[in-house]
Design a protein that fits this description.
This protein is an alpha/beta fold. It has three domains: 80 residues, Arc Repressor Mutant, subunit A (Orthogonal Bundle); 113 residues, Periplasmic binding protein-like II (D-Maltodextrin-Binding Protein, domain 2); 102 residues, Periplasmic binding protein-like II (D-Maltodextrin-Binding Protein, domain 2). The protein contains eleven helices and twelve strands. The strands form four sheets. It has a five-stranded mixed β-sheet. Strands 5-12-6 form a three-stranded antiparallel β-sheet, sandwiched between helices. The radius of gyration is 22 Å and the shape is globular. Keywords: DNA-binding, Transcription, Transcription regulation. This is DNA-binding transcriptional LysR family regulator. It comes from Breznakia blatticola.
Length: 311
C-alpha cells in the first residue's frame, strides 16, 4: 500500500475539503479525489463522508487516520536512523520565503560555520503555505514565513492547527523595486496609477491558507495589468535589470544586491502593503545551536535593511 496515500488522506482530514487539501498539496483536485477513492477501494470502506459542508471522517475512517498518522511517524523515525549513523555529519535545514535579506543572512551564516567536521545544509525557497506544510511534516525543522498582515488570522489559525510555534521577526512595508533606468526612477513622488503602463513581476505561487488559488489570482483584478509570474528569486533580478520598464513589490533589499543589479527601491504614495516575517518550528522542538546562529544572522541582516531610508 502506497503510504503517500496516507499523507493525502490526513491532509483532507486536516483541511476538511478536497479543494483546500489539493491546494495545500499542490495537486489537481480530480487527481486527489481519485487517490482518496483508490485508498478507500484498497481498504474496503469509506474514509470520509462527503457533504456540501465538506468531508468528515467516518467511524472507520477516524480509526484509520489515527493508524496512518502513527505509520508515517514511524517511517520518519526509520529514516532518522541513517542520520544517526552519520553522527559525524551535522544537518541544518530551513525553508524560507524569497526574501533577499534572508538569503543574504543564510550566506553569512554558512560562511561563519566551522567546517572542520562534516555538515549538510538544506535550504528551500518557497511560499509560506509550503513552508508550513514541510515544517509540519518534518521535512524541515525550521522555517521562515512571510504573509500580508491583512491575512494574519488565516496564517495564525493554520499554524496552530498544524501544531507549530511561531515567533515574529518583524513587520515591514513592501517597496517598489525597479531599474535605475526605469522611467519612474527620477520621479519625486510615485502614485499607483503611474504604474499602469509598466510590466509587473510577481511570484507565481502566492498562497494563503483557506483561500483558493482562483481567489488569490483575481484579488485586486485589473484588466489593464501586465505581469510576469516568476518562481525563482534571481530570475526576478535579471528581469528587473534587463527589462527597464518592469517593476515589482519587494521587501527591503540589502544595498549591495541593489547595486549589483542596478536597482532602486521607492515608496508609492497612498499604498501600504504591510507584511510580517516569522519563524516557525514544531511545538516542543528545541532549537539547535545552528538554528540559533542562523536566526542571529537573520536578525542582524534585518536590522541593516530596516535602517535603509526610502524616498
Amino acid at each position: 500500500m502506497n503510504t503517500m496515500l496516507f499523507t493525502y488522506a490526513l491532509e483532507v482530514a486536516e483541511s476538511g475539503s478536497i479543494t483546500h487539501a489539493a491546494e495545500n498539496l499542490y495537486m489537481a483536485q480530480p487527481n486527489l479525489s481519485k487517490a482518496i477513492k483508490e485508498l478507500e477501494d484498497q481498504l474496503g470502506y469509506q474514509i470520509f463522508e462527503r457533504s456540501s459542508k465538506g468531508m468528515f471522517p467516518t467511524k472507520e475512517g477516524a480509526e484509520f487516520l489515527t493508524y496512518a498518522k502513527s505509520v508515517l511517524s514511524q517511517i520518519e523515525k526509520i529514516k532518522s536512523l541513517s542520520a544517526k549513523k552519520r553522527s559525524n555529519v551535522e544537518l541544518f535545514d530551513v525553508s524560507i520565503p524569497r526574501g533577499s535579506y534572508i538569503a543574504q543572512a543564510f550566506t553569512d551564516f554558512v560562511s561563519q560555520v566551522n567546517m572542520d567536521r562534516g555538515i549538510d545544509f538544506n535550504m528551500q525557497e518557497t511560499n509560506s503555505v509550503k513552508t508550513i506544510t514541510t515544517v509540519a511534516d518534518g521535512t524541515f525543522h525550521l522555517g521562515i514565513i512571510r504573509y500580508q498582515v491583512f491575512h494574519e488570522k488565516y496564517f495564525t489559525d493554520y499554524i496552530r492547527n498544524r501544531k507549530l510555534d511561531m515567533e515574529s521577526l518583524w513587520k515591514f512595508k513592501l517597496y517598489l523595486t525597479f531599474s535605475k533606468d526605469h522611467p519612474l526612477a527620477k520621479e519625486d513622488k510615485i502614485k499607483q496609477k503611474m504604474l499602469t503602463p509598466y510590466l509587473e513581476i510577481v511570484h507565481g505561487d502566492n498562497a494563503v491558507p483557506y483561500l483558493n488559488v482562483e481567489y488569490m489570482n483575481n484579488a485586486g483584478e485589473d484588466t489593464q495589468r501586465k505581469r510576469i509570474y516568476v518562481y525563482e528569486r534571481y530570475n526576478q533580478f535579471d528581469l528587473l535589470e534587463t527589462i527597464t520598464s518592469s517593476y515589482m513589490w519587494a521587501s527591503p533589499i540589502p544595498k549591495k544586491i541593489l547595486e549589483k543589479h542596478n536597482l532602486v527601491q521607492r515608496s508609492c504614495v497612498g499604498v501600504e502593503l504591510v507584511y510580517r516575517d516569522a519563524i516557525i518550528y514544531p511545538q516542543g522542538y528545541q532549537l539547535s545551536l545552528l538554528d540559533k546562529r542562523f536566526i542571529e544572522c537573520v536578525l542582524d541582516e534585518q536590522k541593516r535593511v530596516a535602517e535603509i531610508k526610502f524616498r
